[in-house]
Design brief:
The complex is a heterodimer of chains A (about 425) and B (about 400). Chain A has helices at about 1-20, 20-30, 30-45, 55-75, 80-85, 90-120, 125-140, 145-155, 160-165, 170-180, 185-200, 205-215, 225-255, 260-270, 270-275, 275-310, 320-340, 345-370, 375-380, 385-414. Chain A is mainly alpha-helical and about 425 residues long. In chain A, about 80% of the residues lie in helices and about 0% in strands. Chain B has about 400 residues and is an alpha+beta fold. Chain B contains 19 helices and 18 strands. In chain B, helix 11 (about 235-245) crosses helix 13 (about 260-270). Chain B is elongated and about 90 Å long. Classes of the chains: A mainly alpha (about 425), B alpha+beta (about 400). At the A-B interface, helix 5 and helix 6 of A face strand 9 of B.
């Protein structure tokens, strides 16, 4: 009995150790740009759009699991593997695109924070202070503290549950819409669905989960639990997306209100669900912006350190991981300056980000496929045929999603 | 010296016909990493061909008329797979840097000379090395890479898939310059110059200072005056004077013109007094104090001014007429209270040499009084410089050789 107890205690401890990479990356995928996409799609299609939640859980879970498994088995980040296996020229092309995409997403997230501040009637002039504070927090604390901060931010996502509650939706209809198709699906709906999946699964997310899992020093002992944690993360983040979409559907879609962004959603739902719902929705947007604002530039910082082979870890100080923290600082400073510049079009930046993301994703999925099937890297942990099919299907979906978003945005420009 | 980036993809021909292109080089992971074979990418797949007797420097690599593809041995490693783009770690497993290119020394037989871990290695692969060099030259900067010699890599770990340093250092420039100099002395001047071009300026100067005299002489005869002046301005002035004296007059003058005013004055002076053995071994790296100065002030000045000294043990005391009147060593200085005046604890009877003192006599004086640095003075007891025991011994050794 004592032995059995000890065994379970050991297993629970290991399970607790692995918690982090899967959940944090999945939630960060619902960044400010993600919140905007979900809001617009729910305002346009109502509960009908909820049918994509389950496919999103699968696509996100499958792709993130492969990224994390690669890092744990090879003890290398995706950036390391691209440089070592694909050579310097391909690596430079990938990292250049990644930097541009991430820079645009950092701007989107800082823009999201600015919108949330305006919602609460706070002047965006304090934006440099907030971003500077985030940088100092990352530099001055170590991995465990930063991870706790991430989890604290994730807790604030529950604002969407409360917001949905305030909106008094038809819960039965919402839950039914998760599995039972509602009404007719036109081409526009299909396009939007793919675009929502494309906004959730990102190139940076693939880099981040592998680097972050490696930085957490996860080993083969953690592999099984990590897999569970990644799927749990994919489930939880999409559960919150569900509440967000329900809140918007029950207020804006029902009343025929159209919106162009996440802050519009927060303002527009006030007359139908009360001021508290709007505030909670704004709090969710602020949280998404803050989380994305740290994690996306961290991805670039990890990738650049891996490319040059320099030390880059949240557990190291500025002196030891200079390139890592400098890359983080440059992106945050540049992003803040651009967002504060008057007359800068965030729409054009989003357009550029989606274009570059669409270019990276097919290549990235090809790399994931190659590495995860390479016996010399993965040994007995290489992909199963089922995982390969799911990866290829997810890759095709996400690539199509990114292209669809791009086409839509270009069309709206014309 | 050749870089793998320059060799990769090079056309391989036989009897005027293209066989394929060079894809990889195979080498032995031993103390002397001999490059044994090359992998050629042909239309029918990859073949390995022994490298013996084949030159890699030509525009196209020409195979002998009769050649045979061979199999790869177990003890052969691949440049592409085991070195290029790989992570370098130190003995504690800390990440240091990544291999951006691999340097191959082609003579007398091809060996892996080391790895380029600098930005120029990346520029070479992207085909923009010359562009980067010319841009830097325009803004008055010298393109410097980072070269890590084979001597610093553990061959055993390499065959286990790890590029591990022998040292714990995380900075390549902290590798002892003496070790690198020893390794470089085995190379031709051309290869030596190529490696020096990759090193950061100060580290390069340290390495040059540790080269033997004949290598120094050959090196400075080959490199451009501007580059020579840059190195000389960073090394000890007595060493710089010795090197300059070994060069032809025209080259010497061209280099001296490019030195900073301070270096030019000091080096010219040392050259002018180098007509005697003592003058030749003399350096002007010495520190002097005033008899009325306090011990505390001397200590402060020492801290501020002697950082670049290669050796420092004695403080010479000179009076208002610049005459040598006393001496004390650092131990005596440390024992004093901060406000004690120098004249209270200095030794007034200073053992000195003149420019015409024979080296053997100077050494005898040093041995008798147990001192290892001797001031050299003129007839008015003005200090001209100092000679150190090791420099005098070296001058005797050179004569014996």
């Amino acid at each position: 009995m004592t032995h059995a107890l000890r065994h379970w205690k050991h297993r629970i401890l290991i399970a607790l150790t692995v918690i982090g990479p899967g959940i944090i990356t999945a939630f960060a995928d619902n960044d400010a740009a993600g919140v905007a996409t979900y809001s617009i799609s729910a305002a346009t299609f109502g509960y009908k759009i909820l049918i994509i939640i389950i496919p999103m859980i699968i696509v996100l879970g499958v792709t993130q699991e492969i990224g994390a498994r690669l890092a744990i088995v090879a003890q290398k980040g995706l950036g390391d593997l691209i440089r070592e296996r694909m050579g310097i020229r391909i690596a430079i092309a990938m990292y250049t695109l990644l930097f541009l995409v991430n820079m645009a997403i950092v701007i989107q997230n800082i823009g999201g924070i600015k919108e949330a501040l305006l919602l609460f009637g706070i002047s965006p002039i304090i934006l440099p202070l907030i971003v500077g504070g985030l940088f100092l927090l990352v530099v001055s604390t170590r991995y465990r503290t930063i991870e706790r901060f991430f989890f604290l931010l994730i807790l604030f996502y529950s604002a969407y549950i409360l917001s949905a509650w305030q909106a008094q939706p038809d819960w039965g209809a919402a839950l039914r819409a998760l599995i039972v198709p509602q009404g007719q699906y036109d081409r526009n709906f299909l396009f939007t669905s793919i675009a929502v999946i494309g906004a959730t699964v990102t190139a940076w997310g693939q880099f981040f989960i592998s680097s972050y899992a490696k930085d957490k020093r996860l080993t083969m002992e953690h592999l099984t639990y990590n897999r569970l944690e990644v799927y749990l993360g994919a489930f939880l983040t999409n559960a919150f997306s569900f509440f967000l979409m329900v809140a918007v559907s029950a207020t804006l879609f029902v009343n025929g209100i159209t919106i162009t962004g996440a802050s519009d959603a927060a303002t527009a739902m006030v007359p139908f669900a009360g001021a508290l719902a709007g505030i909670l929705f704004g709090a969710g947007l602020l949280t998404a912006g803050l989380l994305g604002c740290i994690i996306v530039p961290l991805t670039t910082a990890y990738a650049f350190s891996e490319f040059f082979g320099y030390s880059g870890s949240l557990d190291e100080d500025f002196q030891k991981s200079r390139l890592f923290y400098t890359t983080l600082l440059i992106q945050l400073a540049l992003g803040t300056c651009i967002v504060l510049l008057p007359g800068v079009s965030l729409f054009n930046i989003t357009l550029a980000a989606n274009f570059a993301n669409g270019m990276i994703l097919p290549v990235l999925f090809y790399f994931l496929y190659r590495f995860a099937n390479n016996e010399r890297i993965m040994g007995e942990h290489k992909n199963t045929p089922m995982q390969n099919w799911l990866l290829l299907l997810s890759g095709a979906c996400i690539t199509a999603g990114s292209l669809v978003v791009l086409i839509q945005q270009v069309q709206s420009l014309l | 010296m050749l870089y793998f980036a320059e060799l990769s993809g090079k056309q391989v021909v036989n009897g005027g016909k293209t066989v394929g292109s060079l894809w990889d080089l195979l080498f032995l992971a031993t103390g002397q990493p001999l490059v044994t074979k090359m992998n050629i990418r042909t239309q029918d797949g990859m073949i390995s061909v022994p490298l013996a007797g084949i030159s890699l420097t030509e525009r196209a690599i020409t195979l002998p008329q009769v050649y045979a593809a061979t199999v790869v041995s177990n003890n052969e490693l691949s440049v592409r797979e085991h070195l290029l783009d790989q992570q370098i770690i130190d003995i504690k497993g800390n990440k240091v840097v990544r291999v951006n290119d691999v340097a191959i020394q082609e003579k007398p037989y091809p060996v892996v000379a080391g790895v380029d871990v600098g930005v120029l290695g990346i520029a070479r692969w992207m085909g923009v090395e010359q562009f980067v060099n010319s841009v830097l030259a325009r803004i008055g900067k010298n393109a410097k890479g980072n070269f890590l010699s084979w001597e610093n890599i553990q061959p055993v770990e390499l065959s286990r898939g790890k590029v591990m340093l022998k040292q714990e250092e995380t900075k390549l420039t902290k590798l002892p310059p003496e070790d690198l100099a020893d390794h470089l002395e085995r190379l031709s001047v051309r290869n030596l110059t190529k490696i020096l071009d990759l090193l950061p300026s100060e580290y390069e100067a340290d390495v040059v200072q540790n080269l033997n005299v004949s290598h120094q002489k050959n090196l400075f005869r080959t490199i451009k005056p501007r580059h020579a002046a840059q190195i000389l301005s960073l090394i000890d002035h007595d060493e710089a004077a010795d090197i300059l004296l070994s060069l032809p007059l025209r080259k010497r003058e061209a280099i001296i013109k490019l030195l900073s005013e301070e270096s030019r004055t000091s080096v010219s002076y040392l050259m002018s007094v180098s007509t005697t053995d003592i003058g030749n071994a003399m350096t002007n790296e010495y520190f002097q104090a005033d008899p009325e100065e306090t011990a505390g002030n001397v200590r402060r000045r020492i801290k501020a001014r002697t950082e670049s000294f290669s050796s420092f043990s004695y403080v010479y005391v000179v009076n208002k007429r610049s005459e040598l009147t006393g001496v004390f060593d650092l131990h005596e200085l440390i024992l004093q209270d901060m406000d004690t005046r120098v004249y209270r604890f200095m030794t007034p009877n200073v053992i000195a040499a003149s420019l015409t003192t024979p080296v053997s006599l100077a050494l005898k004086k040093m041995a008798k009084y147990k001192i290892h640095t001797l001031p050299v003075t003129d007839e008015k007891r003005h200090i001209l410089g100092v000679v150190m025991m090791e420099d005098l011994v070296e001058s005797i050794q050179e004569k014996l050789v």
